[in-house]
């Protein structure tokens, strides 16, 4: 699929070390030479809220850090354009689901451009890989997957073993409840394991896409979709699999079960789950309706750099709450940084080293911003034209902030 526009990266002198990322399990991720990143993308039925924007901006910060460290980065992201919430929204508004998806994908492109997020190398919609997915399910049905017949149709499930959900990552999660919250049913009669995942819904005999194009009559399972798109874009090794913290289970777990079933050599080396963003006391979510949208903030006349600055004021793994006051904090910060750009600049080379150190340490963006603030305070009127240019290039290349 066509991505959004690329963002030119200014060249900086020297380079960084690859960031040492600390997962929630305590293990660390440091890619060597190549860095393959897969981030779960949007279901295009509603506009990008700040929770989504935080996730994609965090992974953008990662990609910028990796590139500054000289890694060869390949980034793949999906678009779940075949999914129940999309069909339901389209049905409720009388719109064709493809038309709704196309509109929302366009809006997402424009949001990402406003936030100066570097586009992925492979941006793949589920609708583009349906043939692959059908072939995958047919193949798995000859092996580990099984059929379950109900309501005149055949669904296919892939087993989950106890080993798949063992370990510290899943210890504090109510797995069955998490499954229910994503629309799957651990109690479904006929399932051989309660956590088994749906990999295809609604075949009729040999016809996997029966009932014409009626939305929702058939569809691949969500987890195997990401598995296939990741394998197509990145091959069997994924250095970082990423997404919001609510994707730990079932999505990432079961996606990896599917990936290994499709490709025994598949290996996900690390996972990064970004913090959840609250607004007015609760997690920002479509179902609760407490959303603040990137497009709404931009349409109100806010400089998109303020939105990016308020997002990166939080470390990638932090849960936080958005308030309108965040915009004012970001505005004061941006104003001072722009003053440094025009009337200051002294000491920028030292600042670059300091910012690189902060980002290499678990992508610590709040510490990087604090280091810049302190430096700007002391140097905003100490004119050094070359330093001022380096300062602007650093903010652009490492933080995605255009001054
Ligand atoms: Zn995914």
Description of the structure:
This protein has helices at residues 50-68, 84-93, 97-114, 130-141, 175-181, 222-234, 248-262, 294-299, 304-312, 325-343, 348-360, 365-379, 385-399; strands at 21-22, 28-29, 34-39, 72-79, 122-125, 146-150, 153-158, 197-203, 219-220, 237-238, 240-244, 267-268, 271-274, 277-279, 282-283, 320-322. By secondary structure, it is of the alpha/beta class. The strands form 5 sheets. The chain has a 5-stranded parallel β-sheet with strand order 5-4-3-11-13, sandwiched between helices. Helix 6 packs across helix 7 (248-262) and helix 11 packs parallel to helix 13 (385-399). The relative contact order is 0.16. It binds zinc ion. The site of zinc ion has 5 residues, from helix 7. Residues 40, 78, 226, 251, 255 line the site of zinc ion.
Helices and strands, with pairings:
Elements: E1 21-22, E2 28-29, E3 34-39, H1 50-68, E4 72-79, H2 84-93, H3 97-114, E5 122-125, H4 130-141, E6 146-150, E7 153-158, H5 175-181, E8 197-203, E9 219-220, H6 222-234, E10 237-238, E11 240-244, H7 248-262, E12 267-268, E13 271-274, E14 277-279, E15 282-283, H8 294-299, H9 304-312, E16 320-322, H10 325-343, H11 348-360, H12 365-379, H13 385-399
Parallel strand pairs: 3-4, 3-11, 4-5, 10-12, 11-13, 14-16
Antiparallel strand pairs: 1-2, 6-7, 7-8, 8-9, 14-15
Helix pairs in contact: 6-7, 9-10, 10-12, 10-13, 11-12, 11-13
The chain binds zinc ion.
Zinc ion binds next to α7.
């Amino acid at each position: 699929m066509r991505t959004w526009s690329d963002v030119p990266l200014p060249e900086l002198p020297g380079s960084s070390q690859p960031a040492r990322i600390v997962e929630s399990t305590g293990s660390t991720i440091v890619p060597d030479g190549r860095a393959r990143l897969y981030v779960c993308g949007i279901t295009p039925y509603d506009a990008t809220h700040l929770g989504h924007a935080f996730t994609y901006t965090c992974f953008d910060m990662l990609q910028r850090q990796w590139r500054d460290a000289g890694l060869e980065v390949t980034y793949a992201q999906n678009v779940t354009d075949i999914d129940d919430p999309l069909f339901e929204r389209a049905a409720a508004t009388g719109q064709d689901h493809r038309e709704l998806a196309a509109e929302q994908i366009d809006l997402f492109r424009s949001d990402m451009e406003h936030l100066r997020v570097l586009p992925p190398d492979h941006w793949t919609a589920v609708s583009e890989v349906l043939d692959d997915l059908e072939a995958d399910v047919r193949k798995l049905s000859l092996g580990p997957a099984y059929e379950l017949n109900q309501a005149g149709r055949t669904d296919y499930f892939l087993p989950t073993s106890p080993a798949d959900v063992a370990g510290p990552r899943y210890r504090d999660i109510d797995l069955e409840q998490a499954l229910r919250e994503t629309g799957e049913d651990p109690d479904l009669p006929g399932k051989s394991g309660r956590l088994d995942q749906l990999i295809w819904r609604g075949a009729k005999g040999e016809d996997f896409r029966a009932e014409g194009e009626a939305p929702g009559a058939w569809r691949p399972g969500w987890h195997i979709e990401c598995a296939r798109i990741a394998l197509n874009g990145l091959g069997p090794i994924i250095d970082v699999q990423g997404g919001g913290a609510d994707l730990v289970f079932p999505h990432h777990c079961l996606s990896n079960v599917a990936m290994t079933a499709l490709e025994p050599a598949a290996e996900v080396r690390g996972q990064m789950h970004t913090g959840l963003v609250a607004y007015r006391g609760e997690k920002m979510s479509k179902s609760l309706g407490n959303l603040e949208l990137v497009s709404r903030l931009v349409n109100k006349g806010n400089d998109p750099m303020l939105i990016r600055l308020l997002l990166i004021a939080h470390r990638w793994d932090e849960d936080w709450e958005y308030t309108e006051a965040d915009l004012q904090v970001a505005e004061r910060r941006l104003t001072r940084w722009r003053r440094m750009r025009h009337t200051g600049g002294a000491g920028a080379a030292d600042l670059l080293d300091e910012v690189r150190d902060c980002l290499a340490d678990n992508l610590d963006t709040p510490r990087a911003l604090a280091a810049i603030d302190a430096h700007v305070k002391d140097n905003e009127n100490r004119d050094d034209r070359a330093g001022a240019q380096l300062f602007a290039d650093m903010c652009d290349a490492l933080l995605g902030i255009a001054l």
